[in-house]
Amino acid sequence: MTITFYDIPSKLAVKGWSPNPWKARLALNIKGLPYKTVWVEFPDIERMCKEIGAKPTGTTQSGTPLYTLPVIRDDTNNAVISDSFEIARYLDDQYPDTIPMFPKGSHALQAAFKEAHERVALAHFYPLMGLTTVRQMNAPSENYFRTKKGPPSGATFEEADLKGEARDEQWTKVREGHEIIAGWLSKNEGGQFVMGENVSFADTMLVAWLRMIGVMYGEESDEWKAVLSWQDGWWARYLKLFDQYLAVV
């Protein structure tokens, strides 16, 4: 079996920061499937995707095809799959003897969870991401983001960065969103995963975005320490369940 996994590098010592690729990487690691990582800078993503036959995952505001990572190439089946959700579904279909990311009957509920996670938590985190994220990129990706993907207002990332009370209020919204999600999960009769005792793709959504905070801000940062203290350490205990799946190969 030869699976190639395409991800975005950074200047950080800890490899792997982007949450969408992390969802797919977690699926590969949880399933125990061997793979190798190829690192692709942002300005090279479209060219690479076209070269290997990866499908676009959407369209830009101008209506042109949008190419994003993660992407996997599975030479065993001569397949190239884009988008973390579709990658996880593909891995379930092609490698049924591994831990399923979408246990039977859960596709609709997990799709709904994806939308709910976006609404109650991620929507509040996005305004905090820009400057911190772009500063961690290698020069080619940083330049691409600053010239092609700047804030919609036309301001620089530095100008758009939230400060002071506005920043504190935004973090409060992120915390409150995760408090709602922790409340959902605490209603399970057993187990701490989204589906109770069984890990699923929904868990990779939570872990990938939380891990981004730890990687981008740093393990010793006030931001990460705050996350680990939320809901009396609920998320710290939850994330501990995934220590064995965080390898970057």
UniProtKB/TrEMBL annotation:
Q: From what superkingdom does this record's organism come?
A: Eukaryota
Question: Some GO term, biological process aspect, for this entry: which one?
Answer: glutathione metabolic process
- List the molecular function annotations (GO) for this entry: glutathione transferase activity; maleylacetoacetate isomerase activity
**Family matches, as InterPro entries:** Glutathione-S-Trfase_C_sf (IPR036282), Glutathione_S-Trfase_N (IPR004045), GST_UstS-like_C (IPR054416), Thioredoxin-like_sf (IPR036249)
Q: Name one Pfam family in it.
A: GST_C_7
CDD domains found in the cross-reference section = GST_N_etherase_LigE (cd03038)
Q: Report the leader peptide range.
A: none
The molecule here is called: GST N-terminal domain-containing protein
